[in-house]
Amino acid sequence: MQRYDDGTAERADLKLLTKALLNRLVAKAPGHAVEVRIPPYGAVQCIEGPRHTRGTPGAVIEMPPELWIEVALGRTSWADARMSGKLRASGERTDLSALLPLTNS
């Protein structure tokens, strides 16, 4: 996290932090109704609701790793992330604002 904050994070650091925050999201909102994609580092299914099994899920959120980290840590609001044009969300239950930030508190 320190290297990310310092602006010296390498690809491996981004991958580790992205996956750790995705795991926190799943722990906070288990389920299979929404797929959160953070290419190229990971994708998870979360939030209670209908389980997705084949093809493109009905609810998908996708954004770059740097934006995911900022949103997950509460440094960028969900609304600001949506307005940035870098976050794509389609389908029901794709507003994660009530679950964020994903801090330990």
Give an overview of the whole structure.
With 105 residues, the protein is an alpha+beta fold. Helix content is 36%, strand content 15%. The chain contains 4 helices and 4 strands, in the order ααβββααβ. Strands 2-1-3-4 form a 4-stranded mixed beta sheet, with helices on one face. β1 and β2 form a beta hairpin. The chain is globular, with a radius of gyration of 13 Å. 24% of the residues are buried. The model has no long low-confidence stretch (mean pLDDT 92).
Please tag this protein with its features:
SCP2_sterol-bd_dom_sf; 15% strand; alpha+beta; globular; SCP_3; Bacterial SCP orthologue domain-containing protein
Q: In angstroms, what is the radius of gyration?
A: 13 Å
Structural class estimated from helices and strands = alpha+beta
Major sheet strand order: 2-1-3-4
Distance between the first and last residues' Cα: 17 Å
Overall mean pLDDT: 92
Give the SSE layout.
Layout: H1 2-6, H2 11-28, E1 34-38, E2 42-46, E3 60-62, H3 65-72, H4 78-84, E4 88-90
Parallel strand pairs: 1-3
Antiparallel strand pairs: 1-2, 3-4
Helix pairs in contact: 2-3
Organism: Kribbella karoonensis
Protein name: Bacterial SCP orthologue domain-containing protein
InterPro entries: SCP2_sterol-bd_dom_sf, SCP_3
In short:
The protein is α+β, with helices and mostly antiparallel strands. It is 36% helix and 15% strand.
